[in-house]
Specification:
The protein is α/β, with parallel strands linked by helices. It is built from 14 helices and 10 strands.
């Protein structure tokens, strides 16, 4: 090998050496997620496109039931979680959990009618499906009904379960309508079922983001800032580079249909927060509703629930 050839390879060698050093010193972080869906897109992009690595992190996404996220966070087995709703409940109850970033502030759900059902008004006196009582589906269903001038008491609200069961129940007419998230709503549309309402037009409610313990924020503030920076960059990248994000979504959502993935991507854009924050009015509303649900009379300040100070400056 000539001297010129050896010199030409030096940048590649240096890059490879830098990569090895970076990996060797990367901080291992575990983030709890209830499932891998399109609302996890900032995490998926940050991981696959290298934004976590650029901030010195080796991130593992740990899938666990939503009800377990805060419990495992408190145990120390994960450092961050994405279940904002559960975190708000914990914070209102006095547990030292804070929401540091909000990915979406509206539910990504369509109320889809069974064959022959063409409007929300058609549901009067008929059964409709939600996944569980007291959660996002329950709130969304009741807001859609009342916002469409239909008293929820005039509809039989049934607990159906997961999205596969919900889709089947709507398709067969066992229920007259059900709340479906992507891609099930789009698959239902393809098969002739009509979307009657988009829940995000009736409900503003933060559901997915980054939550952690106040101990983590106080002990490792720089770590949290770097994590927020990586996710902020991933969100900007995802918004501006649909073609590059599509393969990441296809792989992680396990969807091979380009048209379906494209529609899921576009659908998600309408529920994204601009910069990871929510406004004071929404914070107050979420805290008030949670206090009422939990039967807590004591006032709870917004800074006991939300802390957006670790996000990049606007």
């Amino acid at each position: 090998m000539t001297r010129a050839e050896r010199l030409s390879r030096l940048p590649l060698v240096a890059t490879f050496f830098f990569f090895l050093v970076t990996c060797a010193h990367a901080e291992n972080i575990k983030i709890g997620v209830p499932s891998i869906t399109v609302t996890s897109m900032p995490l998926l992009v940050a991981k696959d496109a290298g934004f976590f690595q650029q901030e010195g992190f080796n991130v593992e996404l740990v899938v666990m039931a939503a009800a377990m996220n805060i419990k495992v966070l408190l145990s120390g087995d994960i450092q961050y979680a994405t279940t904002v709703g559960s975190a708000v409940v914990a914070s209102v109850r006095g547990i030292n959990v804070r929401t540091a970033m909000v990915f979406v502030d509206k539910p990504l759900l369509d109320l889809v009618g069974a064959p022959g059902v063409n409007s929300v008004q058609d549901l009067k006196g008929k059964p409709v499906g939600i996944s569980s009582r007291g959660g996002l589906h329950d709130v969304s269903m009741r807001r859609i009904l009342s916002g469409s001038n239909l008293d929820p008491a005039q509809v039989a609200v049934l607990t159906v379960g997961g999205q596969g069961a919900m889709f089947a129940a709507v398709k067969t007419g066992r229920i007259s309508a059900g709340l479906l998230n992507p891609p099930f709503n789009f698959i239902a549309n393809r098969e002739g079922m009509k979307s009657l309402a988009f829940a995000g037009n009736f409900v503003r409610l933060p559901s997915t983001g980054i939550v952690t313990l106040t101990d983590v924020l106080e002990r490792a503030p720089d770590q949290t800032r770097r994590l927020m920076r990586a996710l902020a960059r991933a969100r900007t990248f995802a918004k501006e580079n649909k073609a590059k994000v599509m393969p990441i979504l296809k792989r992680n959502l396990r969807l091979d249909d380009d048209d379906l993935v494209s529609r899921v991507y576009d659908y998600h854009k309408q529920v994204e927060t601009p910069d990871g924050r929510i406004d004071a009015n929404l914070m107050a509303e979420v805290i008030r509703d949670t206090r009422q649900t939990e039967g807590i009379t004591k006032e709870v300040a917004a800074n006991q629930v939300f802390d957006f100070s670790y996000l990049p400056q606007r």
